């Protein structure tokens, strides 16, 4: 084994304090300590934060309960149960097509925020936002349920369940041709749930779509592409 050569002259003189070089040079650089939580530095745009289950423009959910996100998760953090829309009464739907996610849980004690689940999702139902403040007081509280993850209804959306826009398929929804609730959907919800708080704003949105269309009063709320 070869010996480490000994320093000579000035090198030998400063050798005992040479290790402080980094310390001294850092003393004159600006402080970079983030004063969290008093000052919150915005995350990078593509930061992987908390999940969200998204909706279509008429309020139906994008999740079809396929469980692909759960299967791909390396931390086994997602639990999904799917159900048939056909089992809902009077032709109502939670999501377009055959199936919807009836149970959806993410365990944030397990999640490592890798983003594989959102890559696997075939309908772009599952996305991740920039929210990183996910601490909790209990283990149970860090298992987020579907209601915690579901995107809120925007103004003009109609709360599910309700039928799909008449004359459309789940492919039309996926292709972005449904741009809001239709009059028939609003009427259906009015009949089933007269006190639903989303009916009035959805009715206004449906009227707006109708007047923007060719003039037919019962034109489905479709048009435009993504
Ligand atoms: S981000 Fe990764 S670890 Fe977290 S739920 Fe999705 S796949 Fe699982
Ligand atoms: S979030 Fe996407 S991948 Fe997961 S069950 Fe729903 S549709 Fe399937």
What report would you give on this structure?
By secondary structure, the protein is an alpha+beta fold. The chain has a domain at 51-193: Alpha-Beta Plaits (2-Layer Sandwich), CATH 3.30.70.3270. Helices cover 24% and strands 11% of the residues. The chain has helices spanning 10-14, 21-27, 68-72, 116-120, 146-149, 170-174, 183-192, 199-212; strands at residues 51-53, 78-84, 99-107, 126-128, 143-144. The protein has a three-stranded antiparallel beta sheet with strand order 2-3-5. A two-stranded antiparallel ribbon has the order 1-4. Helix 7 packs antiparallel against helix 8 (199-212). The longest helix has 14 residues, at 199-212. The termini are far apart. One iron/sulfur cluster binds next to helix 4.
